[in-house]
Structures are given as structure tokens and as C-alpha cells.
Amino acid sequence: MERALSSHLVVNHRMTVAWLDRVLEAGVNLVEFFCARQSLDYRDHAQIGELGHWFRDCPLKLHSIHSPMYSDDCWGRTGPQSVINIADVNKMARRSSVDEIKRALEIAEVIPFRYMIQHLGVGGEEYDDRKLDAAFSSLEELNVFARQRGVDILLENIPNRLSSAERLLYFLGITHLDNKFCFDVGHAHIMGGVEREFDLMKDRIRSTHIHDNDGTNDIHLFPKFGEGGNIDWKTAIRQLRTRERQYPLLLELREAPTMAQPLDKVRQVFDYLEAIPNQDYE
Q1: How far, CA to CA in Å, does 195 sit from each of 44, 117, 164, 187, 238?
Q2: Could you report the per-residue pLDDT of 202-227, keeping only the tens digit for each?
């Protein structure tokens, strides 16, 4: 699997070409932009233009973007109106969310990429049939807008009542949408378990999010190097390899304040995961 990295690692810092240079030096092939305006301001034509100029002459490629979760630049602290939720049953709020996601998709007009990762609802969202109707209306419009720009929208399994593997498959079954999946290993660990969630989603997986946690909290730890993580990486990696031609190995990590050289650790995480044998030997 190709090595890929999400800019979630620098989500609290403005993303620059200098950081991308270091990502390339770390041996990464693909990158995912995490669309949080304090880091990557998709509304800022100057920032997007500078990044686009850098990508034109670089072997590092933009694989995907993560759809924005808030319209502000401070994790939604400006108020509930900043929360982006395509499953919102309030039509005006949903309309605002769709418009904001379209702004992020316009990055593809400057920097081509293949996928956008999208949540159904927000963290902890409760199930409601009306929310599925709202999400369907949103995705119908967003799918058209994205495909006009050469982008496919991938639905991600996240910890809520709309987005388990079973619920995502149910949603696609009743709506007849053909969206594929981004399989988040850390979220699967919190929900139904990595093995079970992967088995349900595997046919439609086109990208991944790789990170560790304690089975309860979504803390995006570095596999092997993050204290408190307990995912069985031997089993997880062996499962992922059964479909390895479908997706890259994409790390979505949280910055660790005590980690002096996080990109050095990123390289070590890839080395560790790739060194896991396909079977145990006695």
C-alpha cells in the first residue's frame, strides 16, 4: 500500500509548502488535506494558489481532502451555526452546510484530487429516519458538484448512530447512491470492532484513516508510539492487505506536544506497519 498522510497532524497550525516539503522528505507518496480553516483555509485563494503552484512540480500528490466539520477557524467555538452537518433536519442549516462543503470541493479546480471524505452527521449523532432523508438530499447535490470536478465522495465510519458499517450500508441500500467508503480503523475499534467493521465495508473501501486509541476515546494516537493505544495492529494490517490495491495506508494522527520530530515518527510508524508479517512464525 502507498504511504499517505493527513494534514490533521498540523491541524492547529497553518499548513505551508515547507511542511509539505518535510512530508515528501519523510517518504510519503500521498497527502490528504484536512479542511479546517485555521490550518487549510479553503476560502483563502492565496493559500490554495501557493499550494497549487507547489504541487505542479512535485512528486507528492494530493489524494483526498477531508470535508470541513466547522465553517469557522476555531473548532466551532463561534457557536452552533458553525457546525457543518449534511444530515441536519433543518433545511436552512443543511443548505449552509452543503454550500460550505462546495467551497472546499473547489480546491480541485486548482489542485486535482480523487476523493473527498465525508461524515454522515456529527460525533454522537442519534439515529433518525429524517436525518437519512436529509443526508440523501445533501449527497445527491454534492455528488454532482464533486464529479463535475473529478472527485468522488467517500463516506467515513464515525462514532455515531448513523455511521456504523451496518448503517452506512443500509443508507446506501435505501437511497441507491453509489458512494464508496473511507475505512477509519480507529473509529471501527471504538464501534463494532476493526475486524467486523472491515468485513462489512471492504468491497467499497477506497481510502483509509489509520490511528490508534484506547477503544473508548477518539484520540488519534500514533500506532505503536502513542501511549494508551490498544488496537491489534497485526490483525488490522493483515486484513487491510487483503484489499491493498483498493486504497493507500493513510495516517490520520493528532499532534503530540511532547513529540519533537513527528514526521520522523510517521516514517517509523509506516516501517512498523509494513514490517508486520502476513502470518506468525514459531
Answers
A1: 40, 21, 13, 12, 10
A2: 999 999 999 999 999 999 999 999 88
